[in-house]
Every structure is written in C-alpha cells, then in structure tokens.
Design goal:
Layout: E1 6-11, E2 14-19, H1 30-45, E3 51-56, E4 61-63, H2 68-71, H3 79-95, E5 100-104, E6 107-109, H4 111-117, E7 121-125, E8 129-131, H5 142-152, H6 154-163, E9 167-168, H7 169-174, E10 180-182, H8 187-199, H9 203-238, H10 240-256
Helix pairs in contact: 1-3, 3-9, 5-6
Pfam families: ECH_1 (PF00378)
Organism: Scopulibacillus darangshiensis
Protein name: Enoyl-CoA hydratase/carnithine racemase
Length: 257
C-alpha cells in the first residue's frame, strides 16, 4: 500500500508501519493521522497480518507529536474537529485485536508518546526520550494525562504533565511508560523478534484478551475525549497556545539564523 506520510510493509505476517516524516521529527499532521487510521484499519482486516510494529523513520524521533505548523492555525471554533482527528485514530488502534509493538527510536513526545502508549508493548532504544510537553506551548494535555494516570498513577502524572519534563529511556521504564530498553543498534532486531513471538501465539486468545483490555479503559477514554474538546476550546479562546507557538517558532527561526 502507498501513502504519502507513512510506510506500510508486511513481511512474514508482521506489518511495520513507519511514520515517514523525519524532517519534522515524524510529527502527526492531519494527513498523517488519516493515513495511520487507514493503515491500522487495513491491518485489522488482513488475515495475513499477525502482529504490528509502529515506529518512526530515521534515528531522531519516533514521533514528536502534533504538527505545530497545523496547531498554530487551530482556534476555538475548530478545536473540536482537531480533537476528533485523534479520536478516530486512537479508537481504531484501541480496537485492533492483534498485538501492537511500539518500537521507539528517538523522541516520543506529546501525541507521539500517546501513540506509543496505545501499543501493547513498548520497546525503546537507550537514546529515546519521553514526555508530554504540551504545557510548553500552552496546550492542555487531557488525553495524555488520562493515559499517564492509568499507567503511572496520580503523583507522577501531575509532576510530568505540569513540568513537561523529558525522561530518558531508563527513567521511562522505571515510570512504567515503556516495558523494555535495548541498545540503539539492537532496536529493530529486538522489535522484530518480539513481533515474531507474539505473531506465533494463538490469535483468538490474543484477540479475546485485547478485547477485555479495551473494555477496561473504555469509560476513561470516552470521558477524556469529551473533556479534551472543552479544554482545547477554553485554551484557544484564551489565546495562550497561539502566543506560545508564535514564540516557539520565533525562537526556532532565530537559532537557524
């Protein structure tokens, strides 16, 4: 299958989906989210696919999250449509009844980290870094907070969400954000070995377990998506995200100059 922003490769029953926008640190544009949604739906329909690996192109980033070039054009009137893009993608991934591995090869931040947290198992290179950095550009982090809360509990969630702190891979493992850390040069091989192991498991057993995992989190997921629309509308009405992102791009331009 051909996409503009992702690679879709099936080999020996293992599908590798690669976010292929390395020049943007594999940021999630509207088109990228739509393509990921389509790719995961196709994977779920394809009986030949037994396991899925999601990763990022290059060595710098798994995904840096929402494409800020698009975020700066969002306003209080369009915030609900913007959240809906994530809602559609995340619901599709949560409904997949095949094992999903996030192979994290660099920065996983914001909605990029959320994407990794939707995987069943997260394996990271030692050089990878993790964080919900939305606070730094004035954006609420409702979906990310919910995922953190389920993974780490109240205290660590509040700390990381309000500070926007980045964690190294070993720290992220201690926080239960990821399950395995490997040397950078072993990431691809170890991810594929794990995918082969999972692909060999009884598929009905995998599917039934995953169906139950989804049900356990359905209420929290629905609530957070509903509140995310309200939260982003309030934020954009205040003008904070627009101002913070303008300052971000000005600083980045100054560094390049």
């Amino acid at each position: 299958m051909f996409y503009n922003n992702i690679l879709f490769e099936v080999e020996e029953g293992i599908l590798t989906i690669t976010i292929n926008r390395p020049e943007t640190y594999n940021a999630l544009s509207t088109e990228t989210k739509a393509e990921l949604t389509d790719a995961f739906e196709a994977a779920n329909r394809d009986s030949e696919v037994k396991a899925i690996i999601i990763t990022g192109a290059g060595s710098k980033a798994f995904s840096s999250g929402q494409d800020l070039n698009e975020s700066k054009t969002v306003n209080q009137e369009t915030a609900d449509a913007w959240v809906d893009e994530f809602d559609k993608l995340y619901r599709v991934i949560r409904s997949i009844e095949k094992p999903i591995i996030a192979s994290i090869n660099g920065f996983a931040t914001g909605s990029g980290l959320q994407l990794a947290l939707l995987a069943d198992i997260r394996i990271a290179a030692k050089s990878a870094k993790f964080g919900m950095t939305e606070i730094n550009v004035g954006l609420p982090c409702i979906i990310g907070s919910t995922m953190f809360w389920e993974t780490m509990g109240r205290t660590k969630t509040i700390d990381l969400i309000l500070t926007g702190q980045l964690l190294k891979a070993e720290e992220a493992k201690d926080y239960d954000l990821i399950t395995r850390v490997v040397d950078d040069n072993e990431l691809k091989e170890k991810s594929r070995d794990l995918a082969k192991e999972l692909a060999a498991k009884p598929p009905i057993g995998i599917a039934v377990n995953k169906r139950w995992f989804k049900q356990l989190g359905d209420e929290n997921f629905d609530n957070c998506m509903d509140y995310a629309i309200k939260a982003h509308t309030i934020a954009y009405e205040s003008g904070e995200p627009q101002q913070a992102m303008t300052e971000f791009f000005e600083k980045r331009a100054a560094k390049k100059g």
